[in-house]
């Protein structure tokens, strides 16, 4: 039995496993301790990429892979899309935010918004233009399998305090062993 069912014109969203469910006004949301510090919503109609870049820049020593998961920088990016965004933009997930150019950050932010908007419908996630249901994703959960672009085996490494999985192509994203081991350097960043 669903704990909460949200119904709007054209859609029904049941929630079966929520420890807490709150119905808030817009004013209450602005004051809510868990919500008031969220960054811009990546799929909102109005979106300020400059604000997101500025928020990411406050974490110069953090890797971009970890930075994309900071909901205080930009709300909406999760682990699957983190890996996919960075692959599509050919950005080393272990590169420090402070080592990236504004242009690189802007491309990453733009790609994040694009992928999240394209995938906002319920169902499967897709980041590749293909009809093959087994090939909809570029790198996520494809460790050991060949990169669709260059054939190099996709790798997975744990990243950050929460040891979240990060999938990447070492060749396409310029990730060397020293970069992975120490989370430093930004070889191949464009």
Describe the structure.
The protein has helices at 26-31, 49-57, 64-67, 79-88, 102-118, 177-182, and strands at residues 4-8, 11-15, 155-159, 164-168. The chain has 190 residues and is α+β, with helices and mostly antiparallel strands. It folds into 2 domains: 1-36, no CATH class; 38-129 and 136-182, Helicase, Ruva Protein, domain 3. Strand 1 and strand 2 (11-15) form a beta hairpin. The model is unreliable at 180-190 (pLDDT under 50).
Give the SSE map.
Elements: E1 4-8, E2 11-15, H1 26-31, H2 49-57, H3 64-67, H4 79-88, H5 102-118, E3 155-159, E4 164-168, H6 177-182
Summarize the structure.
By secondary structure, the chain is of the alpha+beta class. The chain has helices at 26-31, 49-57, 64-67, 79-88, 102-118, 177-182, and strands spanning 4-8, 11-15, 155-159, 164-168.
